[in-house]
Amino acid sequence: MNAPFALMRSTVRLVDLADPGEIDRLEGFVARHPEGTPYHRPAWFVSVASATGNEAQALVQERGGDIVAFLPVDVIHSPIFGRVVASTGFAVGGGLLVTEGADADAMFSAVEELARRQSCLSIELRGGTLPTEGEGWALKTESHANFARPLAADDDEQIKAIPRKQRAEVRKSLANDLTVEVGSSERDKAAHYEVFCESYRNLGTPVFPRALLDSVVDAFGENADILTVRHEDRPVASVISVYHGGAVMPYWGGGTWDARRLRANDRMYYELMLHARRRGCTSFDFGRSKTGSGAYHFKRNWGFEPEPLTYATWTVPGSTAREADPTSSKLSLQIAIWQRLPLAVANRLGPLIARGIG
């Protein structure tokens, strides 16, 4: 009688992110995984941690030398918002990626242990395979929604695909004296950050450090760029986009006060749709927005339908989850004060605060 085959054991470990070979393994795993996102890539979570003075970690589960589960995290610390393990930091996505036969519970236990070792009271998983509610874990559903749809076949079909009222705004923007530039040079980065700073101040949100934005553009290389709309050579709207799996994902964008009058934001997103298709993309991922917010309705006006998202949070028993959502009613007073700050003051203080928001 033949002896039974021994079951192959799996092990969970932290990856040495200083090892280029390990980075390549993780990049390959994400590229092959059907649920992989840009926010799972080391190009994202390692870069943003380095740029903000936080710490990147990666948990993998292996069997027979192969990765069967992967959880990228950023350990984010802030004297205002506290400490959190986020998957992933400064992103709207991330979370646990698993393959058939992986032990997801072992990964959740490992990240809980990691949080305790890092003196973090909270964990935030922004997608991926989620844990069962209970034992410190809570699921948050429908507070945010994502918006994505296919790109049209050509320029004429793209503008026809936009609902009538929004299409009229796009046509008005096309009649205005605006120019469009796409690139990743210092001119592009400087123009984007100038617009981004004013936009965030106007929203009442501390602006991220420029090093954070530049680090993503640099790390993604050909898979990221900046589209800027100018009026009389002055940048009035600009957006950083990343490209993954045939989708364009506009991420950090904004406009000045003049952008609304000039309809520069409308022009920006329309031009990005055309640009993305020309570089081979087949879908436009508008990203997430808080349900019922102005951005939520803006994306619906473009013909995008909301897809409710579910996130998971864990807190140490007896503790309360951290509050760092800029749309939270608890932060409304701080937001109102921030909107009244002179731009120079907001630009100086904002990066010091925002590097801990995550």
UniProtKB/TrEMBL annotation:
Q: Where is the BioF2-like acetyltransferase domain?
A: 167-300
Q: Name one Pfam family in it.
A: Acetyltransf_6
InterPro entries in the record, alphabetically?
Answer: Acyl_CoA_acyltransferase, BioF2-like_GNAT_dom, PEP-CTERM_FemAB-rel, PG_Glycine_Bridge_Synth
The record ties this protein, via SUPFAM superfamilies, to:
Acyl-CoA N-acyltransferases (Nat)
**Name assigned to this protein:** Peptidoglycan bridge formation protein FemAB
Organism expressing this protein natively? Novosphingobium indicum
